[in-house]
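Posting this for the archive.
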Amino acid sequence: MALIQNQSWIPIEEDELTIEINKAPFSLNFFCQAYNSKKSKFHAVQMAAFTEKAGMAHLTTGIQLEDTDCFASGTGMAPNKSKYYESLFFEADAHHYLFYENETTNRLNLLGKKGKYLKLGFDISQFTINGKTIHISETDLSEFHLAIFIDRNLNDRIDKGELKKLTVRFN
């Protein structure tokens, strides 16, 4: 997993990490298996965005997704009419449900393949906070927080290594 901005690559390897970036568009890259609706293999990147770090405090290893505010069943946000998330939405009780099944059914950009994993990208150029959408360069936030969950074994529980908590500060 990595954050990319202006061709600079910042790896996200630790379970909790703080990074600094410019107040400009960026991408998040992930390795995830393909989503397969026919075989009920719902491999996806689930990502929740928070303006306060406290929003992620309850997300811990061992917790069932149903016991979370943001990753429980039914909390995945619908994308825009384009079938993509055109903004990073800050919602304490919801998450972006990001996947790639094929060229026509996806919410992520396919960047490559490595074995059974797909390298996928999510481009972010604007934020939606309290229903208002603004370009990143215009935000009043000095930092924001992301909880990025990939349920690699599809057991609906946060297991070790499946959750990354990222604090992003603007320099």
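Residues 126 and 135 are 4 Å apart (CA to CA). The chain has no helices and 13 strands.
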